[in-house]
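user: can you give me the structure for this one chain? tokens are fine.
assistant: on it. calling the predictor now.
[tool input]
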Amino acid sequence: MSHEDLEAHDKFLFTLEWLLAVTKRHAGGLQFGLAHINYESPKILGETYGAQKAAQKLDEVSHSLRKAFRKSDLVARDGGDFWILVPFAPAEKLVDKIRYIIETASQSGLQIVERDISIFLLPNDAAQLGENVTAQEFLAYLKMNHITLASNEISLPASE
């Protein structure tokens, strides 16, 4: 990952942990959206482009996402996963915006893998995990349970 991606990842985790703590203290007062974009097979990207070129293409997606969203929205990349933290917005609008950005980014070759997009409107049941859950553990929980916890799910299939 690029230096910019590492900084954005750290900032994202810090902000998410703060939001989770505030949400626990003030239930119902703070709402925000969290989007997860999962590139299903980083292995296919690596086999197709080579590891370095695949990483560069994923960095390009990070950059495109950061550029397309507002400064108050945070974008983090973790391997082939992208997380976007946004103030409360209608889920449909967020899905449409992300779909457009991903389809645009895919024109540079990333359409060869399936991309799943999950939108979470928080707080939800996942925000009640426990007092000492880290942001990283929270994201892992959301990723593992996205089918039951996401308010919207879309999948962009790999092209032939």
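assistant: here you go. The chain has one domain: 3-156. Residues 3-156 form a domain with the Alpha-Beta Plaits fold (CATH 3.30.70.270).
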